[in-house]
Amino acid sequence: METYYHPGDLGKFAEMGKGNKELWEKFTSYYNAVFAEGALTEREKALIALAVSHAVQCPYCIDSYTQACLEKGSNVEEMTEAVHVACAIRGGASLVHGVQMRNVAQKLSM
Amino acid sequence: MSETKLSLKARGSVLTSENEQLRILSEIKGCPPFEAPMGRIGLDPLYATGISIFQMNLGKLCNQACRHCHVDAAPDRREMMTRETAEACIDALAQTDIPTVDITGGAPELNPHFRWVVAAARALGRHVIDRCNLSVLLLPSQADLAAFLADHQVEIIASLPYYRPAQTDAQRGEGIFEKSIAALRLLNQIGYGVEGSGLILNLVHNPVGAFLPPKQEAIEAQFRKELKLRYGVVFNRLYTITNMPISRFLEFLIETGNVGGYMERLANAFNPAAAAGVMCRYTLSVGWDGTLYDCDFNQMLDLPVDGGAPRHLSDFDPAALHHRRIVTGNHCYGCTAGAGSSCGGALT
Prior knowledge:
The complex is a heterodimer of chains A (110) and B (348).
Chain A: H1 21-35, H2 42-55, H3 59-71, H4 76-108
Helix pairs in contact in A: 2-3, 2-4
Chain B: H1 8-11, H2 18-26, H3 35-40, E1 53-57, H4 83-94, E2 100-104, H5 114-123, E3 127-132, H6 145-151, E4 155-159, H7 165-172, H8 176-189, E5 201-205, H9 216-231, E6 238-240, H10 247-255, H11 259-268, H12 272-276, E7 283-286, E8 292-293, H13 296-300, H14 318-322, H15 333-336
């Protein structure tokens, strides 16, 4: 079946470096620094990444960070809660824009 | 999902054949022969650097039947080291200054000669490790086992894949987590794992699935916090061990469609530093029948020591074994991936 997404493409991610090596290296250097142990643990960062993966709806990131979370010692209960955090923020973000809707409606209405 | 209360052998699985396992592992796309990356770092062929661990596998009988067991141990297995072979092990040990005896199984404590082996190895002044599945300590027939181990200052290395019941039971059987915690409390009560007691209790974490283990220090801290908080249990160290793609874990990989992905993951995570320190370089592993192997995994794949070294205890020759050529295969990726894996945990 033709789809836009192919699971095998995740393994080809580094091919993006072929178009502009310098920018790719800057990106990977930054990316690796972001996920290194810091004020947050690698495990906590992987859980954040998993949640963000769902918020931005990137199937490659979901595959990658599901495995990363398991390999950093998280369990499915924790990972599910992380996804709920993403869901709550996404839902909340829509709802809070409802205030804008209400403001506009109020202005237009008698 | 297959029910693993019975061993592969009892179920007549094709994976009972070591050759079939080796064939499967050698034909996986995306996973080059193990000798290829080893050759690139100058470690093919791989040679032993000496022997500091004398590992004795006392047999395949176990009171558990864990889904990842590389031994295919289970209550139905009857292979067991005889007293004669156990005595030959101690005689061989006495010819050397190998400092550590690592006793494994199955559940090694269920071998009727287990306590004799422990006492004899201790009498030779060697450090003794018991690889314990914890629940065996609760069997009525083993009521005095914990005290025996403490009396002989035996180090306990106990398997506990995760600090929550669901994951542990999924891998080791329904109700095993609860029994493991009861056994850990029993061990803590007599001083095991308690600072200053001299009684060492180390735990083993291995992933509950087809993925690599976390960093050892990170998951040790998690275990320490969670076990203390939830169950009041303490321990000394936690070792991470990668699931080896053989026997019942290989069955799991095949059944779940994970075998290719897992082997590719292991191969992609090949770590030269881990490869240089693999345990086979300093271990001699003795099978229940006295056959000699480079490690417990080669033992389960029926790959005895090679390169002219004696293959059985009856021909034991420490000098010939010290610098033997190690037998390798694609299963060895399990020890060289990521931070590396050994019976003593991560390698880097």
